[in-house]
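Thread: "does anyone have the structure for this chain?"

Original post by V.I.:
We have the sequence but no experimental structure in hand. Need at least a predicted one for the grant figures.
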Amino acid sequence: MENKYILHYAHKELDENIPTFEFEHLDELGEYVQEILDRDDSETVYLFTYDAKAGGQEEVNITNNKIPLLFYLVQIFESMENVEEILGKKAPIKNFFLFEYTSYEVAYKQALLMKEENPLCYD
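Reply from O.Q.:
Generated one for you, tokens below.
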């Protein structure tokens, strides 16, 4: 599993453990996320983040607009591909998180939980 990309994906109707999906290549992960976002559902709020280093997620993005989310994903993937080309090995980002919610309120509560270790999380 060390050289694989892992997507932790929770559909908004999921009421069990969050499943993980493994991908050998970044473009496979991207295609799978595209399939998820292609569903015509304006009633979904998406939370997306990734682990860039041990112990915590980077930026947490929350939106119900798929277009900016796709642009952000493309930017991350292109950056990773550039790093991989330069280093000759896979980029250190392995875990991606895509969670669906029925409201911004619930998504932001989850974002706070994810960032609690950050000293800037609370006043």
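V.I.: this helps a lot. Residues 5-115 form one domain.
O.Q.: and Helices lie at 26-37, 66-87, 104-115.
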